Amino acid sequence: MGDVEAQLRKFQKELSAGTVSLALLAVLARAGEPLYGYLIAKELERTGDGVLSGKQSALYPVLRNLEGAGLLESHVEPSVAGPPRRYYRINDEGRTVLKQWIAAWNATRDSLESVLEGVER
Amino acid sequence: MNNEHNARPLPTTIPEYLEQLRAALSGADPAMIQDALYDAEEYLRSELAEQAGKSEAEVIAGVAGSYGAPEEVAEIYRETEVTVNRALRTPLPGRRPAPPPPPAAGVAAAAATATAVPKPRSAAARFFGVVLDPHTYGALFYMLLSLVTGIFFFTWVVTGLSLSVSLLILIVGIPVLLLFLGSVRVLSLVEGRIIETLLGVRMPRRPAYTDRSQGWLARIGAMFTDGRTWLTMLYFVLMLPLGVAYFSVATTLLSTSLALVFAPVAEVVFDQPVGIWVDGVKMASGAWLWPLSIAAGLALLFATLHLARAIGRLHGAVAKHLLVRL
Fold it and tell me: Which end of chain B is more exposed for a tag (fewer CB within 10 A), N or C?
């Protein structure tokens, strides 16, 4: 039984590894204002629970990578609650990439659905 | 694999959580640990501010479900670091990818399947591959740049330290000293970014973690007892002699090797006499010297590139020990 569960967890992990960048870009594109890590995590938790099958700590490194790849811009603002927060904002290149990713995602989803059709649930 | 997560009791305060996270990450890249602690603190403090009514322990218990328990977070960061390093550092013909940091028990299996075994390369490929390695030129540029940054860091630390210490007999010395210590931390981060860009050594992307639950005085005191403050200053002072040495070595070797390579051009195009003189007495000259001169120049040039890369690695290691030791 544990084996089946482990397989499921592994699959969920792989799914989220492939989609978390897309989800983060989408959240930031929709927000319209700069968000910091915690807010992004909460937004994702509210609207897209399950995208991050794992834990929310996984998205901080991903945010840094997206910034490193030039898709996000960031600035630091001091906060009363804790350490200064890094606010992320999607830039034009990020929006272009997001458009392409959405198209790729739609294509993947459509083809997957047609493959999955007829499989016993 | 889940059993080990439950082995330790959940922390009840934020410093405890961060301490457990640091313990769980022990052995990993110190720069990554600094980033992970910073991220975790931002999340925890935000969550605590959001849920004002609850106690710290309750908030952390909730966070263990959403953000992850310290051990889970540690595992996530180790995994991400491995995959990110592999994705970001495109493999180059002149360079083997750095071995991933020792993965946690749970990650070992995943990492093993994904790590491609690099092919052993011939000695010639290793020797000439240095030309294609961007870090060679980064290191060379760093050696030239370090004269400027070295003078600046040295002046900053010596001026700041002597100014604030001598002003301590007046009350204004205290804010000056605090400003100076803060500036040293910022400069340390800046130098880290320069080193990571030019030398390719992973350095922190976030400032060092400070415990914000303590009062002002305690935090100021912590700055003095933190060994990193003093090691950073030592590094900045060291940067002057190192910078001068790096700059001299780089310019001397580069100009000598390039002069040797282009000596025939000087004779042909600019009509400058080329040959070997000892104490003003001509020992040898003529066209037969040209290939020798070019060969010697190329050999010296390659030796310079190798030396630059080696110095870059060495300096990166030194910087890592002095600037990000945890």
Answer: N
